Amino acid sequence: MSSKKTLLLWIFSLAVTFIVGYFASIKINGNQQSNDNKNETIRNNFNYKYINPILECNSDIEQNTKLSSLKKSIEDTIKNEIYKKNISFVSVYFRDLNNGPWLGVNEEEYFSPASLIKVPILITYLKKAEDNPAVLKMELFPIVSTDSGDNIQNIKPSVSLAPDKKYTIEELLEKMIINSDNDAYNTLADNLTSNEITKVYQDLDIDISKAFTNPNGNIITVKDYASFYRILFNASYLNQDMSEKALSLLAQSQYKNGLVAGVPQNINIAHKFGERKYLDSDETQLHDCGIIYLPKKPYLLCIMTRGNDITKASNTIKDISAQVFQYVSNDSQLDLR
Questions:
Q1: Lowest mean pLDDT, pick from 65-69, 107-111, 200-204
Q2: Is 165 left (phi over 0), alpha (psi -120 to 50) or beta?
Q3: pLDDT digits over 111-139, tens only?
Q4: Which of 51, 215, 224, 303 is deepest in the core (most CB within 10 A)?
């Protein structure tokens, strides 16, 4: 009899535990949903123009099948440009910044970053300035150099640095990003240690080991490089103010071909281009990577090219940019939520 009583008590306890757990889970889930809604409201109320702060939790979302038609369209454009000998190779990386799905075309191919390298230099200084804002007010005499060898700059800044004038680091950052000034870049890079520069790549898990043996060679992929824009948009490496500062500088870029030429003039773009001419092979690389701020549908687009005509490469980037913009701006084609 006592055994039977014990069994009944055990069954009763189990039932009570189940019921309590069930209602507790409802409460927890309700609170979680309430917190999620609260967090979303806070996120949308940030007073920033270029960032949408969130810690990216899943950067390895698979390529989305809903983007297959866009990918096919881009691949067809690339094939056509190669057939016409306007270009020899193109890599593309696209990402929906609100929802995460992405697509890539030849996204694992390595290229020379050329002037794209200026973005991680910008991030390195802004990271230092988080702890010591005075860093941006330090003054330096510029390192003024002449174009030579593979470092010839075809797309030149509109105004050059004065060799006998000191500039603050903040001024040099502006000229490096907005005007793509190589002298500003050389001055800023020379003022950093190699450890300070590589730390940014290591923190973001971007492999640049190829740069140690051939710094002017093909050392980075379009997919890896796109990481810099994701962390700025999400404010997940620099703080919110510094992320906003970085993207506001990139939005002032004077280069208006490539990505910019492929979208309407009223659409804001935070981007950086890079060019590299190899004299021994006559190969030209032209890249353009950035965030296109289509209202309510911001997206990241990074395009890297190889060819022998910088104008034709620029037109190819423009055509792909226009193609992607038309696709994303069409509500019936892109609904990834």
A1: 65-69
A2: beta
A3: 999 999 999 999 999 999 999 999 999 99
A4: 303
What's the CATH fold of domain 53-329?
Answer: Beta-lactamase (3.40.710)
Q: What are the phi and psi torsion angles at 160 (to 5°)? A: -90, 160
pTM for the model stands at 0.81
Mean pLDDT of the chain: 83
Distance set, CA 128 to CA 173, 176, 217 (Å): 13, 17, 28
- Does residue 70 contact residue 93 with C-beta atoms inside 8 Å? no
The packing angle between helices 182-190 and 169-178, to 10°, is 140
Amino acid at 254: Q
Q: What is the DSSP string of 86-122?
A: S-SEEEEEEEETTT--EEEESTT-EE--GGGGHHHHH
CA 273 centroid distance within chain: 12
Question: Is the Cα dihedral 181, 182, 183, 184 positive or negative?
Answer: positive
**How far lies 29's CA from each of 32, 34, 173, 252, 337, in Å?**
5, 8, 47, 44, 21
The pLDDT of residue 76 is 97
The Cα 323–Cα 319 span in angstroms is 6
pLDDT at position 106 over 60: yes
Domain coordinates of the chain in residue numbers? 1-45, 53-329
Instruction: Report strand pairing: 167-168 vs 139-140.
Output: antiparallel
